[in-house]
Predict the structure of Acyl carrier protein.
Amino acid sequence: MFRSVSRSLMANAAMARTGALRSAPAMVRFNITQHSSMLTKEDVLARSVQVLRGFNVKTPEIGLETKFSQDLGMDSLDYNDALVALEEEFDIIFDDEAANKIQSVGECVNYVIANYIPEEIGLDAEIR
C-alpha cells in the first residue's frame, strides 16, 4: 500500500514539474484509528473467572479486587500459568513488564481490554 502511494505522489510531482498537472498535488490522508475493544469489562471478567476456576484457587468468589497471590493463593508458577491461559483465551500477550505489575484480576481485565484486537480487523494469524 505504501509503495503505491509513494509512486502516486512521485508521479504527481513529476507531472507538476512538467506542467501536465496544473492543480496542487493531492493530499494523502491515512485513517489510522485505534479500534476499541469489542469486549466489555463484564465479558472479560466472566471469561477470566472461568479460566481462573481451572486452577486450584482457595476462594469461591473471584471479582475485580481479587489478588492473585493473597486471595487466590497462587505462587509465581501458578500465576504465570494463569497468565498463559488468559493469553490463549483472549489471543493477547502479556509483556514481562505488565506481567510483573499486575497484582489483581481487575488489573488483568484492564490490560486485556486495552490490548485486545478483535479478529474482524483482519490481521494475519501469523502476526497475531
